[in-house]
């Protein structure tokens, strides 16, 4: 009888631990999660003067609903790296986010034109 009670207690304890771990993992959010407006400004090269779009960050992964070839990641420190390809245009950049804004540099090309500049971000 005592052995059966110990097995049940052990099983309950294991279930509780699993529940707590899973609940914590499910709620793991990045401090940068949410919608961000980005502005890319060309400083050198013959690319468009500015590019504007909105991205979403979830658990440190940066996504855009219409840009299939967009990859971006934000570290816990706020360091961010991203790249995007749209037709014959490619850009990659890095920088840093704070809780409400961010800034960094980028470089890339549009066709044969090589370009570079800076980007800014504002949390929505």
TrEMBL record:
Residues 1-28 form the signal peptide. Keywords: Signal. It comes from the Bacteria. This is Uncharacterized protein. It comes from Nitrobacter hamburgensis (strain DSM 10229 / NCIMB 13809 / X14). The lineage of its organism: Bacteria, Pseudomonadati, Pseudomonadota, Alphaproteobacteria, Hyphomicrobiales.
């Amino acid at each position: 009888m005592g052995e059966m009670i110990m097995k049940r207690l052990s099983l309950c304890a294991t279930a509780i631990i699993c529940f707590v771990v899973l609940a914590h993992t499910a709620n793991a959010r990045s401090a940068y999660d949410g919608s961000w407006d980005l502005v890319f400004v060309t400083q050198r090269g013959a690319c468009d003067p500015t590019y504007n779009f909105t991205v979403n960050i979830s658990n440190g992964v940066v996504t855009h609903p219409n840009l299939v070839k967009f990859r971006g990641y934000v570290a816990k420190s706020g360091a961010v790296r991203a790249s995007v390809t749209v037709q014959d245009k490619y850009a990659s950049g890095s920088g840093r986010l704070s809780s409400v804004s961010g800034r960094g540099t980028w470089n890339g090309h549009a066709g044969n034109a090589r370009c570079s500049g800076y980007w800014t971000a504002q949390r929505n």
